[in-house]
Structure formats: C-alpha cells, structure tokens
Amino acid sequence: MPTLSRRSLLLGGGSLVAAAAAGAVLLEEGVLPGRAVVERKLGITGPVGVVPAASTGPRTSGSFTSAARGGTPTGWTISYPPGSAEGDHLPVVVSLHGYGGDHRSSFDHGMHLDRFQAHARAEGGPAVAIASVDGGNDYWHTRTSGRDPQRMLVDEFLPLLRRRGLDTTRLGLSGWSMGAYGALLVGSTLGPDRVRAVAASSVALWPTRVRSASGAFDGDEDFARNDLTTRTAALGALAVRIVCGTADAFCPGNEQLVRRISPTPPSSFTHGAHDWDYWRRVAPEQLRFVAGRL
Prior knowledge:
By secondary structure, the protein is of the alpha/beta class. 36% of the residues lie in helices and 19% in strands.
C-alpha cells in the first residue's frame, strides 16, 4: 500500500486549506451556488438580534369581522410610543406578519416591535404608531376562495386606524417573509401618494409559480399578477429598503429584485438566516428607515 510522506501531507493540507478558502470566497461572492446551504450548515448566520429592555407605551387590541376575508374574525393591535396616548394623531407603520402568524406576531409572539419602538423613541426618534392585523396565510393578495387580505387592509383596517385618530395619509409598511412580500405588493399597488416608505425583511420571493410554496398562489395567472419582479417601476417610485440574510434561501431573489429596481433602493445582505434572530437584528434599522420618512 503506498504511503505519503509528512511533506506531502503538509503540502496537500495547505492546498486543501487554500482551496477551502477560495471556495468560501466564491460562495460569499455568490459565484458558486449553495451559499445559503453552506452558511446554515456552518452556522454562519450572524449575531442574534437582541430585544431592547425598554418600557413600552400604551397598546390596544381588538377584532372585527372582515367581509373582505369572507366573514373571518380578524384581530388587530396598535402600539403607541411612550409619551403618546390612544387617539393621538400619529403617523403609522403597518406591520405585516409572515406565514403562520397573526397580529400578535409583531409584538408578543415574535418581533417585539413595541420594544424597538420604545427604544427608538428614547433615543430621540420620531413618535410613530405601529399597527398589525391578521392576514391569514393568503400572501396578502386576492384569492380564488374570495378571501382578499389586501382589500381588508386597505378598505377595512386603514379606515379603522383613521377612526382611532391615526394619520394614514403618512403610511409606512413593513414586514418579514410573507409579510415583506405583502408590504412590497401593497406599496406597489397604492403608490407613493399613499405610502411613504416600505421596509421589507427576507422577502418571500420565488422565481416561478412551480417553485413557490404550496398555497401561495392559485395558479400561473395569479402568480403573474402578483409577481414583484414585474412591478419594479412601481417599487422604484417608493422609498423602499430590502434586507435579507445570506444564509436565507430567498437571498438570491432578494438581491436580484434590488438590482432590477431603479433607482437602486437601500439594501443590506449580511450573514443571517430566515428566522427571528435575524429579523430582530435588523428591526432597529428597518423601523428607523420607515419612521424617518413619516
């Protein structure tokens, strides 16, 4: 059986190290496929987002029966910054939840946006309300079932916010995953006259309907109607910020979308996965982006 000398092993080991380093660079630059898979396996997902230990402002919740969602009971929450009260005429950021979430996901059960809101206010940020509402798992657009979470948002929830004193003429939108897709979809539909800014984190974006998640679209025509890559002109007219973790399978699509929008919107693609750790880490800058434009 042939043997290897110590010198051969050392030289070979050096070559392996060099090859691994070169491969890592190519993965990082997106030249080789599989960056997201490799980064997740290696645990290269960046630091965990820390929820601020801040005293929050007042919060109110309720529900209504949504005709646009086929008579579905629809919960909602409004969070006010410290120093403000219910009924104050504040601009509002509407936070859209991801798949499997509901109005509570923006606060107690996930993002804890009221804590980030309070911390930003303590640091001298503008007084901005944050509101969330149940959208179900219909990807924030009209479905053949008759459910229409986008119409619910525009025709039912925004009037509810206005009746409670909030200034919906200065509307911000934010969301993560399915909610990020929905925020960009709604923003591109309403346009800059109604939407001042959109902050989208880890947009759930597929290249084709066949490769999309089961139930996200009702068919090829539904996919085509709601394809964000065909709405780049409308998105370019908005103040948009798109961020995504590089260990997220959606990252290549998010990067491509940013490149197709003109003018190129601010964006960030750093280590991170498709999870709460990443979304909480980027939450302060996302909130700062939207609030600063309201």
